[in-house]
Amino acid sequence: MVFLIVAFPFTCRAAEKIRYEELQSRAALHGDSLGHRRFKVTTLDGKVHGGQDFTVEPDRLRILLRDNTWRDLPNAQVSKIEIRKKGGYAHKILEIGQLPIALPLIACEGENRKARCLVTSTVIFSPVVLAFSPVWAYTAATAPFYLAAEGISRLSSPQIFQIVH
Length: 165
Known about the structure:
Blueprint: H1 2-11, E1 16-18, H2 20-27, E2 33-34, E3 38-43, E4 48-51, E5 53-56, E6 60-64, E7 70-74, E8 78-84, H3 90-97, H4 99-107, H5 114-132, H6 134-155, E9 159-163
Parallel strand pairs: 1-9
Antiparallel strand pairs: 2-5, 3-4, 3-8, 5-6, 6-7, 8-9
Helix pairs in contact: 3-6, 4-5
């Protein structure tokens, strides 16, 4: 019962009616692209296009599909956009956790003898970094908070924009 009381406010949200020109300022909070979210774009003919990113341009909406290809939709054909926050936090754990593995590549950037540097740093530097990396301690300490934020964001209802032409 308590779960329903807490979760109910997250589930009720009506579609917001906006013009396509307003979409840039309303939906794209980080420039012209929103990453690490899930999208459903409905066109006037009723087709639904799902993706993981989209870019708002004056004449079209570019959707990054799940197979990492782009689909362009003319702005006159877009009728509804649904934005979910799934995947908005969990990717941070992976990005931070990969840093110690990438350090040898970063250390050898710009070297004349890049192959020799990579072998040396991978054989000598990597085991020490991997075993004693404070980055992994940070990742382990923050992962529960990122996962909790991910769970809470999955409870929230999608942000829905009804495009008025």
